[in-house]
UniProtKB/TrEMBL annotation:
Key words, A-Z: ATP-binding, Chlorophyll biosynthesis, Ligase, Nucleotide-binding, Photosynthesis
PANTHER family: MAGNESIUM-CHELATASE SUBUNIT CHLI, MAGNESIUM-CHELATASE SUBUNIT CHLI-2, CHLOROPLASTIC
Organism of origin: Acetobacterium paludosum
Residue intervals of the AAA+ ATPase domain: 30-212
InterPro entries found in the cross-reference section: AAA+_ATPase (IPR003593), CHLI-like (IPR045006), ChlI/MoxR_AAA_lid (IPR041628), Mg_chelatse_chII-like_cat_dom (IPR000523), P-loop_NTPase (IPR027417)
Classification via Pfam families: AAA_lid_2 (PF17863), Mg_chelatase (PF01078)
Protein's name according to its UniProt entry: magnesium chelatase
Biological process per Gene Ontology, one example term: chlorophyll biosynthetic process
Membrane-spanning ranges: none
Length: 355
Protein backbone atom coordinates (compact mmCIF):
# COMPACT_ATOMS: atom_id res chain seq x y z
CA UNK A 1 0.00 0.00 0.00
CA UNK A 2 1.35 3.42 -0.99
CA UNK A 3 2.06 5.68 1.96
CA UNK A 4 0.65 9.18 1.94
CA UNK A 5 3.45 11.74 2.20
CA UNK A 6 1.48 14.88 1.33
CA UNK A 7 2.24 17.96 3.40
CA UNK A 8 -0.87 19.05 5.37
CA UNK A 9 -2.78 22.01 3.94
CA UNK A 10 -3.37 23.47 7.41
CA UNK A 11 0.38 23.41 8.12
CA UNK A 12 1.17 25.82 5.28
CA UNK A 13 2.23 29.20 6.67
CA UNK A 14 1.04 32.39 4.97
CA UNK A 15 -0.14 32.62 1.32
CA UNK A 16 -3.70 33.11 2.58
CA UNK A 17 -5.08 34.41 -0.72
CA UNK A 18 -3.79 31.39 -2.63
CA UNK A 19 -5.19 28.98 -0.05
CA UNK A 20 -8.58 30.70 -0.06
CA UNK A 21 -8.64 30.72 -3.86
CA UNK A 22 -8.12 26.95 -3.88
CA UNK A 23 -10.73 26.36 -1.17
CA UNK A 24 -13.41 28.37 -2.98
CA UNK A 25 -12.69 26.57 -6.27
CA UNK A 26 -13.08 23.23 -4.53
CA UNK A 27 -16.41 24.40 -3.08
CA UNK A 28 -17.57 25.58 -6.52
CA UNK A 29 -15.41 24.31 -9.42
CA UNK A 30 -17.51 26.45 -11.80
CA UNK A 31 -15.58 29.49 -10.54
CA UNK A 32 -12.99 28.66 -13.18
CA UNK A 33 -9.67 27.85 -11.54
CA UNK A 34 -6.80 29.90 -10.14
CA UNK A 35 -3.89 31.65 -11.83
CA UNK A 36 -1.00 32.21 -9.42
CA UNK A 37 1.47 35.01 -10.14
CA UNK A 38 4.69 34.78 -8.20
CA UNK A 39 8.18 33.58 -7.61
CA UNK A 40 9.35 30.01 -7.27
CA UNK A 41 9.56 28.24 -3.92
CA UNK A 42 6.49 29.87 -2.37
CA UNK A 43 4.46 26.72 -1.74
CA UNK A 44 2.28 26.71 -4.86
CA UNK A 45 2.54 23.03 -5.79
CA UNK A 46 2.55 22.04 -2.11
CA UNK A 47 -0.77 23.82 -1.56
CA UNK A 48 -2.37 22.25 -4.65
CA UNK A 49 -1.45 18.72 -3.62
CA UNK A 50 -2.43 19.41 -0.04
CA UNK A 51 -5.95 20.65 -0.88
CA UNK A 52 -6.58 17.54 -3.00
CA UNK A 53 -5.36 15.26 -0.22
CA UNK A 54 -7.50 17.11 2.31
CA UNK A 55 -10.78 16.23 0.61
CA UNK A 56 -12.69 12.99 1.21
CA UNK A 57 -12.62 10.21 -1.37
CA UNK A 58 -15.07 10.43 -4.26
CA UNK A 59 -17.30 7.80 -5.88
CA UNK A 60 -15.94 6.62 -9.23
CA UNK A 61 -17.08 3.96 -11.69
CA UNK A 62 -14.87 0.91 -11.22
CA UNK A 63 -12.36 0.30 -14.05
CA UNK A 64 -13.47 3.44 -15.91
CA UNK A 65 -10.37 5.19 -17.30
CA UNK A 66 -12.15 8.55 -17.01
CA UNK A 67 -13.19 7.99 -13.38
CA UNK A 68 -16.81 8.83 -14.20
CA UNK A 69 -19.19 10.00 -11.50
CA UNK A 70 -21.81 7.26 -11.05
CA UNK A 71 -24.13 9.78 -9.39
CA UNK A 72 -24.20 12.09 -12.41
CA UNK A 73 -25.61 10.22 -15.44
CA UNK A 74 -25.29 13.30 -17.64
CA UNK A 75 -21.49 13.35 -17.31
CA UNK A 76 -20.78 9.68 -18.07
CA UNK A 77 -18.35 8.69 -20.81
CA UNK A 78 -19.53 6.76 -23.88
CA UNK A 79 -18.60 3.36 -22.41
CA UNK A 80 -20.40 3.97 -19.11
CA UNK A 81 -23.47 5.33 -20.92
CA UNK A 82 -23.56 2.21 -23.08
CA UNK A 83 -23.44 -0.02 -19.99
CA UNK A 84 -26.33 1.87 -18.39
CA UNK A 85 -28.28 1.69 -21.66
CA UNK A 86 -27.82 -2.10 -21.68
CA UNK A 87 -29.19 -2.36 -18.16
CA UNK A 88 -25.86 -2.97 -16.42
CA UNK A 89 -25.29 -1.66 -12.90
CA UNK A 90 -22.15 0.44 -12.64
CA UNK A 91 -19.81 -0.86 -9.96
CA UNK A 92 -18.64 1.92 -7.63
CA UNK A 93 -15.32 2.33 -5.82
CA UNK A 94 -13.82 5.14 -3.74
CA UNK A 95 -10.78 7.11 -4.90
CA UNK A 96 -8.91 10.28 -3.94
CA UNK A 97 -9.02 13.44 -6.01
CA UNK A 98 -6.05 13.47 -8.38
CA UNK A 99 -3.54 16.20 -9.09
CA UNK A 100 -2.24 15.88 -12.66
CA UNK A 101 0.78 17.87 -13.84
CA UNK A 102 1.01 19.22 -17.37
CA UNK A 103 4.59 19.82 -18.58
CA UNK A 104 5.32 22.96 -20.58
CA UNK A 105 6.60 20.80 -23.45
CA UNK A 106 3.27 18.93 -23.83
CA UNK A 107 1.98 18.45 -27.38
CA UNK A 108 -1.67 18.71 -28.41
CA UNK A 109 -2.03 14.89 -28.54
CA UNK A 110 -0.52 14.61 -25.06
CA UNK A 111 -3.11 17.10 -23.78
CA UNK A 112 -6.32 16.01 -25.52
CA UNK A 113 -5.48 12.36 -26.25
CA UNK A 114 -5.40 10.57 -29.59
CA UNK A 115 -7.62 8.31 -31.68
CA UNK A 116 -6.31 5.16 -33.37
CA UNK A 117 -7.58 5.79 -36.90
CA UNK A 118 -6.35 2.43 -38.21
CA UNK A 119 -8.31 0.55 -35.52
CA UNK A 120 -11.44 2.55 -36.35
CA UNK A 121 -11.19 1.91 -40.09
CA UNK A 122 -10.29 -1.78 -39.92
CA UNK A 123 -12.46 -2.90 -37.00
CA UNK A 124 -15.03 -0.12 -36.62
CA UNK A 125 -14.02 0.49 -33.01
CA UNK A 126 -12.96 3.72 -31.36
CA UNK A 127 -9.65 3.21 -29.60
CA UNK A 128 -8.70 6.26 -27.57
CA UNK A 129 -5.36 6.89 -25.89
CA UNK A 130 -5.93 9.03 -22.83
CA UNK A 131 -4.48 12.52 -22.66
CA UNK A 132 -3.89 14.77 -19.69
CA UNK A 133 -7.47 16.11 -19.83
CA UNK A 134 -8.85 12.60 -19.36
CA UNK A 135 -6.47 11.85 -16.51
CA UNK A 136 -7.44 15.10 -14.76
CA UNK A 137 -11.21 14.49 -14.91
CA UNK A 138 -12.76 15.21 -11.49
CA UNK A 139 -9.40 16.34 -10.18
CA UNK A 140 -6.97 19.25 -10.35
CA UNK A 141 -4.86 20.05 -13.42
CA UNK A 142 -1.68 21.84 -12.36
CA UNK A 143 0.32 23.76 -14.98
CA UNK A 144 3.56 25.36 -13.84
CA UNK A 145 4.69 28.31 -15.99
CA UNK A 146 1.48 28.27 -18.00
CA UNK A 147 2.56 31.46 -19.78
CA UNK A 148 5.28 29.45 -21.55
CA UNK A 149 2.73 27.06 -23.07
CA UNK A 150 1.62 27.55 -26.66
CA UNK A 151 -1.51 29.74 -26.76
CA UNK A 152 -3.35 27.01 -28.65
CA UNK A 153 -2.70 24.52 -25.83
CA UNK A 154 -3.88 27.04 -23.23
CA UNK A 155 -7.04 27.55 -25.32
CA UNK A 156 -7.69 23.79 -25.23
CA UNK A 157 -7.25 23.69 -21.46
CA UNK A 158 -9.59 26.61 -20.85
CA UNK A 159 -12.21 25.31 -23.29
CA UNK A 160 -12.33 21.94 -21.57
CA UNK A 161 -12.33 23.50 -18.11
CA UNK A 162 -15.30 25.68 -19.07
CA UNK A 163 -17.30 23.02 -20.93
CA UNK A 164 -16.43 20.00 -18.80
CA UNK A 165 -16.00 17.93 -21.97
CA UNK A 166 -13.06 17.13 -24.25
CA UNK A 167 -13.82 16.28 -27.88
CA UNK A 168 -11.19 14.82 -30.21
CA UNK A 169 -11.84 14.73 -33.97
CA UNK A 170 -9.58 13.03 -36.47
CA UNK A 171 -10.35 12.05 -40.09
CA UNK A 172 -14.10 12.40 -39.60
CA UNK A 173 -14.09 10.32 -36.40
CA UNK A 174 -15.14 11.99 -33.16
CA UNK A 175 -14.73 10.94 -29.53
CA UNK A 176 -15.86 12.85 -26.43
CA UNK A 177 -15.26 12.24 -22.75
CA UNK A 178 -15.86 14.14 -19.49
CA UNK A 179 -13.09 16.57 -18.56
CA UNK A 180 -14.24 18.33 -15.41
CA UNK A 181 -11.28 19.67 -13.49
CA UNK A 182 -10.02 22.64 -11.52
CA UNK A 183 -7.28 24.38 -13.49
CA UNK A 184 -4.42 25.84 -11.46
CA UNK A 185 -1.75 27.67 -13.41
CA UNK A 186 1.35 29.49 -12.23
CA UNK A 187 3.40 32.13 -13.98
CA UNK A 188 6.08 34.74 -13.51
CA UNK A 189 4.95 37.84 -15.47
CA UNK A 190 8.58 38.82 -16.03
CA UNK A 191 9.00 35.70 -18.21
CA UNK A 192 6.11 36.57 -20.53
CA UNK A 193 2.40 37.31 -20.28
CA UNK A 194 -0.74 35.46 -21.26
CA UNK A 195 -3.02 37.16 -23.76
CA UNK A 196 -5.82 39.17 -22.07
CA UNK A 197 -8.43 36.89 -23.67
CA UNK A 198 -6.84 33.91 -21.90
CA UNK A 199 -6.33 35.73 -18.61
CA UNK A 200 -10.01 36.67 -18.50
CA UNK A 201 -11.07 33.04 -18.62
CA UNK A 202 -9.42 32.17 -15.31
CA UNK A 203 -11.81 32.57 -12.41
CA UNK A 204 -9.27 33.85 -9.87
CA UNK A 205 -5.76 35.15 -9.80
CA UNK A 206 -3.54 35.71 -6.80
CA UNK A 207 -0.18 37.42 -6.52
CA UNK A 208 2.07 35.73 -3.98
CA UNK A 209 5.55 36.54 -2.76
CA UNK A 210 8.11 34.92 -0.53
CA UNK A 211 7.48 35.53 3.17
CA UNK A 212 9.70 38.32 4.55
CA UNK A 213 8.91 37.95 8.25
CA UNK A 214 11.96 36.25 9.89
CA UNK A 215 9.89 34.40 12.50
CA UNK A 216 7.53 32.99 9.91
CA UNK A 217 10.48 31.87 7.79
CA UNK A 218 11.92 30.08 10.81
CA UNK A 219 8.57 28.36 11.38
CA UNK A 220 8.46 27.27 7.72
CA UNK A 221 11.91 25.70 7.99
CA UNK A 222 11.08 23.98 11.28
CA UNK A 223 7.79 22.55 10.01
CA UNK A 224 9.32 21.32 6.78
CA UNK A 225 12.18 19.73 8.70
CA UNK A 226 9.76 18.00 11.07
CA UNK A 227 7.71 16.71 8.14
CA UNK A 228 10.74 15.29 6.34
CA UNK A 229 12.06 13.70 9.55
CA UNK A 230 8.79 11.93 10.41
CA UNK A 231 5.91 12.51 7.96
CA UNK A 232 3.51 10.24 9.83
CA UNK A 233 3.98 12.01 13.17
CA UNK A 234 3.81 15.45 11.56
CA UNK A 235 0.59 14.62 9.72
CA UNK A 236 -0.90 13.18 12.89
CA UNK A 237 -0.20 16.50 14.63
CA UNK A 238 -2.36 18.33 12.07
CA UNK A 239 -5.03 15.65 11.67
CA UNK A 240 -7.67 17.44 13.74
CA UNK A 241 -7.20 20.72 11.84
CA UNK A 242 -7.29 18.85 8.51
CA UNK A 243 -10.50 17.02 9.44
CA UNK A 244 -12.14 20.24 10.62
CA UNK A 245 -11.32 22.09 7.39
CA UNK A 246 -12.35 19.11 5.26
CA UNK A 247 -15.72 18.94 7.03
CA UNK A 248 -16.19 22.69 6.57
CA UNK A 249 -15.55 22.40 2.81
CA UNK A 250 -17.88 19.40 2.43
CA UNK A 251 -20.68 21.22 4.28
CA UNK A 252 -20.08 24.34 2.17
CA UNK A 253 -20.47 22.29 -1.01
CA UNK A 254 -23.78 20.92 0.26
CA UNK A 255 -24.97 24.38 1.31
CA UNK A 256 -23.92 26.21 -1.86
CA UNK A 257 -27.10 25.63 -3.94
CA UNK A 258 -29.18 27.24 -1.19
CA UNK A 259 -27.07 30.41 -0.78
CA UNK A 260 -28.84 33.52 -2.08
CA UNK A 261 -27.61 36.93 -3.21
CA UNK A 262 -30.02 39.86 -3.39
CA UNK A 263 -30.30 42.37 -6.21
CA UNK A 264 -28.70 45.17 -4.20
CA UNK A 265 -25.50 43.17 -3.87
CA UNK A 266 -25.63 42.24 -7.55
CA UNK A 267 -25.74 45.99 -8.18
CA UNK A 268 -22.63 46.33 -6.02
CA UNK A 269 -20.92 43.70 -8.16
CA UNK A 270 -21.83 45.58 -11.34
CA UNK A 271 -20.60 48.92 -9.95
CA UNK A 272 -17.26 47.36 -9.00
CA UNK A 273 -16.76 45.91 -12.49
CA UNK A 274 -17.66 49.24 -14.11
CA UNK A 275 -15.36 51.23 -11.81
CA UNK A 276 -12.45 48.88 -12.55
CA UNK A 277 -13.12 49.31 -16.30
CA UNK A 278 -13.26 45.57 -16.87
CA UNK A 279 -14.28 44.34 -20.32
CA UNK A 280 -17.18 41.93 -20.73
CA UNK A 281 -19.35 40.29 -18.09
CA UNK A 282 -17.28 37.26 -17.10
CA UNK A 283 -15.90 39.11 -14.08
CA UNK A 284 -19.40 39.97 -12.83
CA UNK A 285 -20.48 36.34 -13.10
CA UNK A 286 -17.36 35.06 -11.38
CA UNK A 287 -17.74 37.58 -8.56
CA UNK A 288 -21.26 36.33 -7.92
CA UNK A 289 -20.11 32.68 -7.85
CA UNK A 290 -17.15 33.50 -5.63
CA UNK A 291 -19.24 35.49 -3.15
CA UNK A 292 -21.76 32.65 -2.90
CA UNK A 293 -18.95 30.13 -2.32
CA UNK A 294 -17.48 32.39 0.38
CA UNK A 295 -20.87 32.69 2.07
CA UNK A 296 -21.29 28.90 1.99
CA UNK A 297 -17.79 28.49 3.47
CA UNK A 298 -18.77 30.80 6.34
CA UNK A 299 -22.05 28.92 6.88
CA UNK A 300 -24.16 31.89 5.73
CA UNK A 301 -27.51 31.48 4.02
CA UNK A 302 -27.09 34.70 2.04
CA UNK A 303 -24.19 36.70 0.63
CA UNK A 304 -23.24 39.85 2.52
CA UNK A 305 -20.94 42.72 1.58
CA UNK A 306 -17.98 41.21 3.46
CA UNK A 307 -18.16 38.11 1.26
CA UNK A 308 -17.86 40.37 -1.78
CA UNK A 309 -15.04 42.37 -0.23
CA UNK A 310 -12.97 39.25 0.46
CA UNK A 311 -13.10 37.86 -3.08
CA UNK A 312 -13.09 40.97 -5.30
CA UNK A 313 -9.33 41.25 -5.75
CA UNK A 314 -8.99 37.56 -6.67
CA UNK A 315 -11.72 37.95 -9.27
CA UNK A 316 -10.54 41.16 -10.93
CA UNK A 317 -6.76 41.44 -10.45
CA UNK A 318 -5.90 39.68 -13.73
CA UNK A 319 -8.76 41.38 -15.59
CA UNK A 320 -7.39 44.90 -15.10
CA UNK A 321 -6.01 46.69 -18.12
CA UNK A 322 -2.23 46.98 -17.89
CA UNK A 323 0.10 49.48 -19.51
CA UNK A 324 2.81 48.37 -21.98
CA UNK A 325 5.85 46.84 -20.21
CA UNK A 326 3.95 46.80 -16.90
CA UNK A 327 4.73 43.53 -15.07
CA UNK A 328 2.57 44.08 -11.99
CA UNK A 329 -1.05 45.13 -11.75
CA UNK A 330 -2.12 47.65 -9.14
CA UNK A 331 -5.48 46.88 -7.58
CA UNK A 332 -7.39 49.85 -6.14
CA UNK A 333 -8.94 48.20 -3.08
CA UNK A 334 -9.72 51.57 -1.49
CA UNK A 335 -12.06 52.42 -4.37
CA UNK A 336 -13.68 48.97 -4.16
CA UNK A 337 -14.21 49.38 -0.41
CA UNK A 338 -15.92 52.73 -1.00
CA UNK A 339 -18.33 51.18 -3.51
CA UNK A 340 -19.09 48.24 -1.21
CA UNK A 341 -19.61 50.42 1.86
CA UNK A 342 -21.67 53.08 0.09
CA UNK A 343 -23.94 50.52 -1.52
CA UNK A 344 -23.99 48.52 1.72
CA UNK A 345 -25.21 51.57 3.59
CA UNK A 346 -27.93 52.05 0.98
CA UNK A 347 -29.00 48.43 1.44
CA UNK A 348 -29.17 48.85 5.22
CA UNK A 349 -31.24 52.05 4.89
CA UNK A 350 -33.62 50.26 2.55
CA UNK A 351 -34.07 47.36 4.97
CA UNK A 352 -34.72 49.75 7.87
CA UNK A 353 -37.34 51.56 5.78
CA UNK A 354 -39.05 48.26 4.99
CA UNK A 355 -39.35 47.53 8.70
Amino acid sequence: MKKNRTYPFTAIIGQESMKMGLILNVIDPKIGGVLVFGEKGTGKSTAVRAIANLLPEIDVVKDCPFRCDPNDPGSLCENCREKVKNGETLAIVKDKMRVVDLPVSATEDRVVGSLDIEEAIQHGKKKFDLGVLAQANRGILYVDEINLLDDHIVDLLLDSAAMGVNTVEREGISFSHPAQFILVGTMNPEEGELRPQLLDRFGFSVDIKGIKDPRQRIDIVKRRGAFEADPHEFMHEYQDAETQLSDQIVKARERLPEVTIDDDLLLTNAKIAIALEVDGHRGDLTLMKAARAMAAYKDHQAVDKEDIREVTEMVFLHRLKSLPFETTRKFNMAMVNTIIDDNGATVQDKKKAEK
